[in-house]
Amino acid sequence: MRGINTDGTFVLLPTVLCGLLQSRDAAVFEELLSDLGKAFIAGLLTGGAFVAMRRAAVGSVRQYLRAPWRKDSISAAIGGLVRGTIGNEFVDLAAWNRELERRVADQVRELERVSRLKRFLAPQIAELIISSGDEKTLESHRREITVVACDLRGFTAFSETAAPEDVMAVLLEYQSGLGTLVDKFEGTVERFTGDGMMVWFNDPLPCADPCARAARMGIEMRDCVSALADKWHKLDHDLGFAIGMAHGYATLGRIGFERRFDYAAVGMVVNLAARLCGEARDGQILIDSRVRAAVDSFATIEPVGELALKGFNRPVRAFNLMCMQ
Question: 31 pLDDT exceeds 70?
């Protein structure tokens, strides 16, 4: 812009005004006023500085029209304005820029915190924890949770014979579909391990119906993967899907190291959900007695019998969750 240096100073404005007055060029004068407006819009001038400079320019022209032109008086008037009012405006602008840089840095740190939390929490839960400013809920603690473990049936054999690109394509579709449902029901993802996935409810934020949420999510997961399996079958990929679900106490908390944190659960309820998943056939959702008791009034359930599960001294009663009413 005319009369404006790259560092935002206005050292050429007196010369510009004197030149346009000398030439009586109205178009040049209009261009100067336009440049002042652009500087204001770009943030180089605050409202007060813009108004002051515009008045000085217009006033100088009017003075010249009424009396003989005196270059020294006009230069002194505009120069004094630049050194005084405008100089103070730029001091304020520099301070404002430093404050803006500080706020941007704070926002970047906040976004990094949200990004880390969204690795294992539904986005809405992560945002809630960030907005509260309290991450103590992620410290080690004991709580009752409903755990959902799921994986693909036939995946090992498939991955041994299929091209790596086909394996990656299947995993992408599979995990994207399930991840969307985890967010929908506000579950907490512990991990993806190839075709395996573990999710739980009621932590880090409590919910009134963890078993019901887990059951409804499980039904929708089964339907989602069933649709994908029909597509995969046309590509000669013979894959199925199974889920295990259990409710009980676990110790939970954030684990890992700087730049790589996860949120983990430890306890027999985690092992039970994983073992039930391992026993489930394609299309089955095996649940334990506690989940069954919580959803029995609004779900169709059939008994499977007692299962001898690795890591459990006594047989475990299991049930097949078929549908929700």
Answer: no
Fold that domain 135-324 belongs to in CATH: Alpha-Beta Plaits (3.30.70)
The secondary structure of 149-173 as a DSSP string is EEEEETHHHHHHHS-HHHHHHHHHH
Residue 260 · residue 205 · CB < 8 Å? no
Mean pLDDT of 173-186: 94
Which pTM was predicted? Answer: 0.66
Burial (CB count within 10 angstroms: exposed 0-12, middle 13-18, buried 19+), residue 290 = middle
Distance set, CA 197 to CA 47, 75, 244 (Å) = 57, 75, 11
User: In angstroms, rounded to a whole number, what is the distance separating the alpha carbons of residues 148 and 136?
Assistant: 24
Write b or e for each residue in 15-43: b if 16 or more Cβ atoms lie within 10 A of its Cβ, otherwise e.
ebbbebbeeeeeeebeebeebbeebbeee
Structural domain spans, the chain: 13-111, 135-324
